[in-house]
Amino acid sequence: MKTETQANVSQVISPSELLEHWQGHRNLTRKMIEAFPEEKLFTYSIGGMRPFAEMAVELLSIASQGIKGLVTDQWEDLKNDMDHGNSKAKLLEIWDQTTEKINTYWPQLSLERFHETTVCFGKYEGKVYSLLLYFVDNEIHHRGQGYVYLRSLGIEPPYFWERL
Amino acid sequence: MKTETQANVSQVISPSELLEHWQGHRNLTRKMIEAFPEEKLFTYSIGGMRPFAEMAVELLSIASQGIKGLVTDQWEDLKNDMDHGNSKAKLLEIWDQTTEKINTYWPQLSLERFHETTVCFGKYEGKVYSLLLYFVDNEIHHRGQGYVYLRSLGIEPPYFWERL
């Protein structure tokens, strides 16, 4: 039987490395939520775009409902509503619950599963690895937008490379 | 000998899939450069951040000098200067040259190489797969910032999922 290290070198990235990558990005997004003044988090906008909290709700919805679907192959329409009551603390609480949910589901993804085709949220067909990368990329994309919001508010955002 | 498809299912993502992922993102960034009015590309800024052309130069520098370093393990300091003469056409020309350079170097990355440790640009130590993901993530991050620039200029950005 191969050791973890031997198994890793025969592939580009292992499942546990991809989980660490995803959760590292999610942790940086969590720092971004913390960095916003609470009122600005739910109201501040540039160019008609959504406040950062609305983007965070999308990221949470995709991650929470997405990990379950990727593992079970059972999908429902994406629900973007979330009962945060415009509270930063509540949003962070839901964030942490989703972190745990991902960690719980993740070990059930077999290596073969990453190349199975699924229909994400009943709408978007793709391979599991590709949909997962889409979740992560979409988070980086919207978080990058949040960086502009913070900078334009005169607030220094967390460092992009600080994922822990 | 395993076929390409058989080899893929025994790993999260294959080298050729990761290349396609990277180049897909680079192609979307290329569309972003095209979407900016030429003068705004080199001058427009929010919150004291760099104009999008300066971010694009960083992305080009990292990709072009980075792929060579990841393959050869020979690194120099990152050079961020580029002779584009504030011309969008010239920037796109350099973009396309870099696309070709990546495609040329990529097949020289062995599967084992992705888990070798290297010192990127003589400064940032990490495994090759992790540094590569950093290149891609950094591009998504800054491109997301460019989306806010375009929206605040009243310009519809390209769709995030259009990578071809």
UniProtKB/TrEMBL annotation, chains A, B:
The keyword Electron transport does not apply. SUPFAM superfamilies: DinB/YfiT-like putative metalloenzymes. One of its GO terms (molecular function) is metal ion binding. Keywords: Metal-binding. A divalent metal cation binds at H142. It holds the Pfam family DinB. Belongs to the DinB family. This is DinB family protein. It comes from Rapidithrix thailandica. The lineage of its organism: Bacteria, Pseudomonadati, Bacteroidota, Cytophagia, Cytophagales.
